[in-house]
Structure formats: structure tokens, C-alpha cells
Amino acid sequence: MYEIIQSILEHLSPAMIINRGGLIVLLAIVFTENGVFFGFFLPGDSLLFLAGMLCGLPILDVSIYLLVVYIAISAFIGYIVSYYIGLKLGTWLLSRPDSLFFKSSYLNMASSYFDKRQHGAIIIGRFIPVIRTFLPLCLGLIKSDFKNFLIYNLIGALFWTSSLVLAGYWLKMIFPDLIHYLEWIILTLIAITSFPLIRQYLKFKRGPIS
């Protein structure tokens, strides 16, 4: 069983995703993590950062500006799909027992995050794993104003995508030798982006967010 899990994780590593699938698979992963609740475990932040580092190389031979636009569109559409899933199926999902791919606590945590920050959470929450995936589902469930959701969704998609992709791109331009240390860069980024999730989870477990 351990070997199977290890194999799955290896194939879902950001480097493997881009190496094997290129731009199409990259966009599909971004869409799935943003648009479908069972994609919460996918490596969104590190994938975007790595895409920026590999942009312009044969493995990802596309303009950096087009790359940002493509990924932002995938993230934007993904949130719309997730919103409608929450709108149409949210109540049914909450009535289901917890499983490996859906836990009501994730949805409740996203709801608490939105209660504190309102529509600004759609922008900031994009940088927090799990919150990023379940927040639009939650907004659909509570029937949040769709026009406001679209505006903040667009801003959040552009900000999340451009900041991470361009950070990876410019870091590679300034320090080209870093391309040889991708594993360490990815691990560092995962640790950094996991901290807000852990902090949010602990606040959620303690009670109402202050």
C-alpha cells in the first residue's frame, strides 16, 4: 500500500506533471484544483511557481505572458464551476458522510474564513491550500452574490497566477543555476504555503475566528 501511495505522489509532483504533460496537463490540474472539490490535494502553488521557472524551456515553450493568462483563465473558470457545484449540490454534499475526497470540516473551515474576510477572502484564500478549493463551493452553497463573486474571482485568479508564475520566472532569470535544485525549491514552497492552512485549521478548531 505504501508503495502505491508513494507512486501516486511521485506522479503528482509538480516537476513530473510538467515533464510528462506540458501545458495542457498543467492547465487541467489548475482547473481541477480550483473547480472540483476532490482536487484539493493537488499541488497548485508549487505547480505555478515551477511553471514560471520552466517557462521558455523546451518543456514549456510558451510566452510568460500567455502562460499567466492561460493559467488565470483555468483558475477563473474552475471557480465558476465550483460555485455552481456548491449551488446545485452543496446541501447534498453536506448530508453525505465524510470520505477521503470530501470532508464537511473543509467546507466549514472555508465558510469561517469567508465570514471573517468576506469577498476579500476570494483573493487571499487563493494562496491557501484546501481553502482555495472549498471556498467557491461554500459561496455557491450560501448563494453569495454572483456578480461580486465574478469580480473578486477574476482579481484573485490574476493575482494568484501572476505572483507565483512571475516569481518563479524572474527567480530563474536572476539565478539560473537554481533550476538544478527544483526538489528543494518545491519542498520549501510547500512548507511556506502550508503554514497559513495550518494556522487557519488551528483557529477553526479553537472556535470562532477573531
From TrEMBL:
<comment type="similarity">
    <text>Belongs to the DedA family.</text>
</comment>
<feature type="transmembrane region" description="Helical">
    <location>
        <begin position="149"/>
        <end position="172"/>
    </location>
</feature>
<keyword id="KW-1133">Transmembrane helix</keyword>
<dbReference type="InterPro" id="IPR032818">
    <property type="entry name" value="DedA-like"/>
</dbReference>
<protein>
    <submittedName>
        <fullName>Membrane-associated protein</fullName>
    </submittedName>
</protein>
<feature type="transmembrane region" description="Helical">
    <location>
        <begin position="64"/>
        <end position="85"/>
    </location>
</feature>
<dbReference type="GO" id="GO:0005886">
    <property type="term" value="C:plasma membrane"/>
</dbReference>
<keyword id="KW-0812">Transmembrane</keyword>
<keyword id="KW-0472">Membrane</keyword>
<feature type="transmembrane region" description="Helical">
    <location>
        <begin position="121"/>
        <end position="142"/>
    </location>
</feature>
<dbReference type="Pfam" id="PF09335">
    <property type="entry name" value="VTT_dom"/>
</dbReference>
<feature type="domain" description="VTT">
    <location>
        <begin position="42"/>
        <end position="169"/>
    </location>
</feature>
<feature type="transmembrane region" description="Helical">
    <location>
        <begin position="178"/>
        <end position="198"/>
    </location>
</feature>
<keyword id="KW-1003">Cell membrane</keyword>
<dbReference type="InterPro" id="IPR032816">
    <property type="entry name" value="VTT_dom"/>
</dbReference>
